[in-house]
Amino acid sequence: MQDHIVVLTGAGISAESGLSTFRDNGGLWEEHSIYDVATPEAFARNPELVLRFYNERRRQLQSAQPNRAHRLLAELESRYRVSVITQNVDDLHERGGSSQVIHLHGELTKARSTRHCDLVYDIGYRDIELGETCDRGAQLRPHIVWFGEEVPMLDKAAEVVRTADHLLIVGTSLQVYPAAGLVYEVDLSVPITVIDPGEPASVSRARVIRKGACEGVAEWLQSL
Description:
alpha/beta, Rossmann fold, SIR2/SIRT2 'Small Domain', 2 domains, 6-stranded parallel beta sheet, globular
């Protein structure tokens, strides 16, 4: 049976494709406070601003390309069983070739109903308009897990982590919960590697490669 490699990715891997992250900009995301564009209260207060913000992010994503780290992780599937659990809302893992991706914080290329959370639509890179509704007549919103909302894929992600033979953490500071808690779901016998150029939160027994995602993943593969 193939070893199961579970990869937990964060904003750092997407940053190397040119997508900005709010944690690198003093709590601002493209000059917007997260509290103005990434909370349910923000959407209730100013839905037009929130929709415009995510429409812009979607257009930015369309022009971005998967980088070497995305492609190297996808290529692992030829030799291993690979599951990617990402905190990112972009589709770069899928476009890079990964077939098993869990999005903890939602997906930018989807929209969902504001009243019926089971109604989710693939919209690609097009805009969501104010007044655009789901099949039951409720306004559509980005399919994003905003601050203060539950993370519906967390339990599934925890189940996947528990089956890991290797845990690779790429481009995340491990400071955003509940996603950061997934590292504690792995069996004590499982090797953990953290790839991040900064100072990620301490993970006992983890090997740390303080490099960017592309360079770090390539180095890790040489030792696999």
